[in-house]
Structures are given as structure tokens and as C-alpha cells.
Amino acid sequence: MRFLTKKIDELEADTFICFVWEDDESKTKLFQHLNELSNGELMRQVYEYNATKRTFCEIFKYAINKEKMLIIAGLGKKKDLTRQKYSQCVAIAARAAKNLSKNGILAMELTENLSDCKCLSDAFNMSDSAQIAICAARIGLYEFNKYLNDNKPKIETIEITEDNITDEIEKNAQIGVYTSFAMKFAKDLINEQAQIVTPQYVANIAKDIAQEHKLEAKILNKSEIQSLNMNAFLAVGQGSINEPKFVHLTYKPKDQTKRKIALIGKGITFDAGGLDIKPALSMLTMKSDMSGAASVLGIIQAIAKLKPQIEVHAICALCENMPSGSSYKQGDVLTAMNGKTIEIDNTDAEGRLTLADALCYCDKLEVDEVIDLATLTGAVIVALGHNITAVLGNNQNQIDNFIQIAKKSCENVWQMPILDELKDNLKSDIADMKNTGGRNAGTSTAGWFLSNFTKSENWMHLDIAGTAYIDKSNKETLSGPTGVMIRSLINYIMAQ
Ligand code: BES
Ligand code: MN
Ligand code: ZN
User: Fold this and answer.
1) CATH number, domain at 277?
2) Catalytic status, residue 278
3) CA 469 to chain centre
4) Which ligand is nearest to the CA of 330?
5) Model's pTM, two decimal places?
6) Is the CB of 375 under 6 A from ligand 1?
7) Whole-angstrom Cα distance, residue 247 to residue 288?
């Protein structure tokens, strides 16, 4: 998909998206332009159907003539619009436009809302709008159709129109373009079936990414992982015929490096639960247990294009969690890379074991901060549902900063605590700790477990188990993978 910034009279689209406010009658330049094309008929029609007074996310479709289609999308009342609501509205409008275009070109105008916003971080200008709208349009148009036989017409090009395209708009549009690509990349990889997406397959993709973007690449096979003593990670993978792989890509800025960040993505390519096998319904979506890995591999591609003065590491411990004669067992005691011992209480709590070794590995990289992204606990769904990601960590400044940026990136995050009290949940008689501790405070307990395997004082953990893959569509995204936290993490890195 291509994105172009254009003046109104340069547009080649045959399908247009215009926005209207519920409490402001004024018409946008694009609307006026299309009205002229229709000799004023658009305005007459729209008044007849009372279509300019759309409430929030209400859509009105109008055929300007035989070729040209218009989508009018309601932004609601000015004081109520947030960045997130704007993003939702664009996604819904783009989805409405999806099958209307014949020439595959969709034009969309930008919007700003600087007045009367509830809170400062909700306000956005035209350049913010460019970034938000590009991501949202691509979210709205996304589909995973490679296994579908019916081929509907597709939108290939999106023209972003604004009278005064400034350098800042162009710059933010670029961030939007690469961010939206990262999201599409991750969603495609998550959607793909687990019999294809094995650790080897992801490792090959990582190799290709490294080559294309000239990144440093370390791809470790089983014996190399063994020599690093990643025994917790290895135990999880040992029940599968598909061998584990460890991926480490590095983006290094050309001249100056202001800061170094390591991103770890949980990479269980299928989580059957191991010997503590999951019930059928819980297993149904477990091809998505590599959402964290797919996301960090998406993010590093965007970073390689955007070229910030930040060194970024993308790290994935990839394996399958399967029940078999060679599986790791309840009661096994594993020694992680840092020497700490773990008694296996439940083989379905495998993510934290793979992350433990990945966190230890990051201790050797001398980075300024470590962030892991993981579909880690079902408990986070009970606590926060499917539209809020949990953030935990050991540095309040880092967390506060990230929460701010997530909000500006149209994503919801909420902090959960890691307190010393949680230690008792994981007490073991024969090892330093157990890997699970009952049903209570599952997300925090997992966070406490992870905190034992990093020396970083700038470590943050994002539990995306509820948000990475959704069964029911939300305002922005249809059911399936969401690419959650990719926007927030790219903006977080770019803001350093
Ligand atoms: N991958 C799951 C967590 C998960 C659950 C992700 C639902 C997406 C949707 C993880 O490996 C897991 O199985 N966690 C267990 C831990 C428990 C045994 C302590 C869980 O949450 O049930
Ligand atoms: Mn599991
Ligand atoms: Zn899992």
C-alpha cells in the first residue's frame, strides 16, 4: 500500500473520506471541492438526508456520480474528540470505503482538534493527524485474505490531502507509514498458521529483515542456545519436533548513539500448554502466542527506516510448547542463564521461562533500558479485558513516560504493581522459585517472576495477552491480531 500527500486538485482517487462535526456546520475544503464537482447536488442530498450531522463514528455513503464515491464520517462533538476516537473514526471510515473504489485509490482529508479538548494530550494538530490517520486507515483496510478464494477490489493507494503540507506533516506521515507497515507485518505473521510459522520460519524471516535493512543479526540454533545455558528456554521447547531458535537483531545509528534499548518479544509459535495441556477453547488462538516476537520484528523494520539516534535490539526466544514424550515435566527444576533455579509447577506458564533467559541475555548487552512484550497471562484479561494492555516494571519514570506516549499513540495501558509480597506466591521448597503461584494476582505474580532475571533498573513488561488477539471486533480493529503496542513503542523510541 502506498501513501501520498497531495493538494485537493491533484487527487486521482475515486473514493473520498470527509469528516463532519456534530456541533460545527462548516464544511471542509474537500467537501466543498466535491460539492462543486457535483454542481451543488452533494450539498442538497446531504441536507435532505441530514447527513452532515453525523454523530461519532456514524457513516454516510454518497455516490457523487457514476465514478466517484464519498464517505462522510462523523467525528461527534468537538470537545469530546480524543486522538483515540479520531483513530477509531478513521478506521471505520476506511473500512466503509474498502470495497467501493474501482481504481484502487482512496483520498482522505486530515483533521485537527486543538480546541476544547478534555485534556492536553488529547489535542492534535495536522501533523499528529497525518500519523494517526495513516495508521488508522491501514488498520481499517487490513485483511488477511491469502487463503480466501473470492478476490474483491482492493485499495492500493491512499492520498492524504491537506492544503498546506508542511515538513512536519511529511515527517509524521513517514512515521505513520512505517508504523502502519510494522503493524501489517506483525498481523500477517500472527495470522499465519502455526504449522508454517515455526521457530525456523521466524528465524528465516529475521534473517531476511537483517539483510534488507542492513542490521546486525545473530540467529542461534539449539546447540548455541545450550552453550549459553538458557536451560529454562530450552526446557519449554524440548517437547516439540521443531527446534528452538534465538533471534537477536540490532539497529545501530550511523553517527551518534543517544541511548540503547532492547526489545524482547515472547515467541511461542504455538502454546498447547505442554503436559498441562490447554482445553480446546483456550488453545484455539494459540498461534498468536508469538505476537510479541512478531511485533518487535515489525518495530525494528520501522526503526531501520526512521533512523533515530537510538540503538535498538530486537530479541526473540522462539519455540513451541507441546505435550509429548520429550516434554518438560511438572516438578522439574530448571537453571536459567543467570543461575537461578525454577521448579516447574505448571508447564503452561512457559512464556516467563523463555523470557527469563531472554532477559538474562540482555544483561550482557549494556543497554539503557529493556522492554518485553508478551502474551503472558490469562489473568490480565480478567483484570483489564481486551482493550487495555498491562504495564509493569521496576522504574516508575519509565512507566509514566510510556503511559503518556501510549495515550498519544491512541492505545490504552494501565499499570499493575510488582510488590515484594508477591514473592510468597512463588515460594518453592526445593528451588529459588516456582514458575506459577495459583490464580490470584496472576499478572503481577508473572511480573515479579520476570523481575528476578534482569539486572536492568529500567525494565518494563507489557502483558498483551488480552489485547494482541481479539475474538470480537473493537471500534478500530476487526477480530484477529491487533498489532497492539507497535504504535506506542515506535513513538516511545522516536521520542527519546
Ligand atoms: N499464552 C498464555 C497466556 C494467554 C492466555 C495468552 C490467553 C493469550 C490469551 C500463557 O502461556 C499461559 O498459558 N498462561 C497461563 C499461566 C498460568 C498457568 C499460571 C494462564 O494465564 O492461564
Ligand atoms: Mn501457556
Ligand atoms: Zn503462552
Assistant:
1) 3.40.630.10
2) yes
3) 10
4) 1
5) 0.97
6) yes
7) 18
101 lines ligand 1 (CB under 6 A): no
CA 406 to centroid of ligand 2, rounded, Å: 27
Q: What is the band of 414 on the pLDDT scale with cuts at 50, 70, 90?
A: very high
Average pLDDT for 421-449: 96
State the ligand closest to the CA atom of 268: 3
**Atom 9, ligand 1: residue with shortest CA distance:** 465
Ligand 1 close to Cβ of residue 350 (< 6 A): yes
CATH number at residue 159: 3.40.220.10
Whether 174 maps to a domain, the answer reads no
Are 282 and 211 contained in the same domain? yes
Same domain (yes/no): 233, 324: yes
**Which of helix, strand or coil describes residue 102?**
coil
DSSP secondary structure, 187-231, as one string: HHHHHS-TTT--HHHHHHHHHHHHHHHT-EEEEE-HHHHHHTT-H
Distance from the CA of 338 to the center of ligand 1, in angstroms?
A: 24
Check whether residue 300 and residue 357 sit in a common domain. Answer: yes
Number of domains in the chain: 2
Q: For residues 256 and 354, state if they share a domain.
A: yes
Q: Over 80: is that where the pLDDT of 159 sits? A: yes
Of the residues 95, 352, 434, 487, which is catalytic? 352
Residues 160 and 191 in one domain: no
**Residue of 51, 65, 83, 48 whose CA lies nearest to 408:** 83
- Residue 179, in any domain of the structure: no
Is 352 among the catalytic positions? Answer: yes
Is 28 found in the same domain as 135?
yes
- What is the rounded average pLDDT for all residues in the chain? 96
Cα gap 106→235, rounded to integer Å: 50
pLDDT for 132 equals: 98
Q: Whose CA is nearest to atom 7 of ligand 1?
A: 378
141 and 213 assigned to the same domain = no
Cβ of 349 closer than 6 Å to ligand 1, yes or no, is yes
Assess if residue 309 is contained within a domain: yes
290 lines ligand 1 (CB under 6 A): no
Section 127-137 average pLDDT? 98
Distance 13 CA to ligand 2 centre (A): 47
* Per-residue pLDDT reduced to its tens digit, 196-220: 999 999 999 999 999 999 999 999 9
Q: If you average pLDDT over residues 340-349, what whole number do you get? A: 98
Which ligand gives the minimal distance to the CA of 274?
2
Report the distance separating Cα 424 and Cα 299, nearest Å: 36
CA of 354 to the centre of ligand 3 (A): 10
**Amino acid identity of 395?**
N
Domain ranges, residue 370: 184-494
The pLDDT confidence band at residue 15, using thresholds 50, 70 and 90, is very high
Tell me how far apart the alpha carbons of residues 156 and 303 are, in angstroms, rounded to a whole number: 24
Per-residue DSSP letter, 51: G
pLDDT of residue 247: 99
Say if ligand 1 is within 6 A of residue 348 CB.
yes
Residue 72 counted as domain residue: yes
